[in-house]
Amino acid sequence: MPARVAHRGYSTVAxxxxxxxxxxxxxxxxxxxxxxxxxxxxxxxxxxxDRTVNRTTNGRGRVWxxxxxxxxxxxxxxxxxxxxxxxxxxxxxxxxxLLAPEPVDLLVEIKPPATLDEVKSIVAQLAERDLxxxxxxxxxxxxxxxxxRDVAPDARRGLLLFRFDAETVxxxxxxxxxYCNPSVxxxxxxxxxxxxxxxxxxxxMPWTPNDIAQWRPLVDAGVAGLITDLVGELxxxxxx
Length: 240
Ligand code: G3P
Ligand code: CA
What we know:
Layout: E1 3-7, H1 19-27, E2 32-39, E3 45-47, H2 68-72, H3 92-99, E4 105-110, H4 116-128, E5 135-139, H5 142-151, E6 156-160, H6 168-175, E7 179-181, H7 184-189, H8 191-199, H9 215-221, E8 225-228, H10 231-238
Parallel strand pairs: 1-2, 1-8, 2-4, 4-5, 5-6, 6-7
Antiparallel strand pairs: 2-3
Helix pairs in contact: 4-5
The structure holds SN-glycerol-3-phosphate (G3P) and calcium ion (CA).
Domain GP-PDE: 2-238
Protein name: Glycerophosphodiester phosphodiesterase
Pfam families: GDPD
């Protein structure tokens, strides 16, 4: 069976990219936990998906315009439901401390813009906890993947794709990625995507198959992992 990748944690049962979502993912049988990293104005890596804090917190503004203290003071749970009031946007350090003792690998998406120093800081935090061997660092932005390659040549890397095209395999080779992760539609509607990446020895973990009917054709196509909001359901399905 492919890896069961919890997208932003088990993000249908707890607010995405929060410590309870990561706890829930582990409890629900995820083999990999995916989350998104950005840096605050003062250079602290925090775990949040959007460019702004507007959707998933009670604050306003772009993450890189706010200090860590300002981000850490926000409520990142109320938007999801009353039972989650008071949750915070976790720092990368808090997230890694939570997940390090757990039997899961990490899929760390670095959102652009990310400076070389920010990439160094992310890699250093993983290395400090001896997590690099359990981690794939990925980004939609080839320049960010290039920075990861330059900072940590031995780290496993992934290139996220909005659309597979004729240049993809060459770019993936240049970046030395272990994974190219296209959209689920690219894999299901374009058999050449899987064929070309498999021929290049590159693994594929499509995002974000949240329709259970998509899982069988993806497994049959040979994907290395399913990045889904429904990781508990995937665990049950995989065990059936
Ligand atoms: O890991 C793949 C997936 O997370 C990419 O999309 O927008 O959810 O970060 P997004
Ligand atoms: Ca992501």
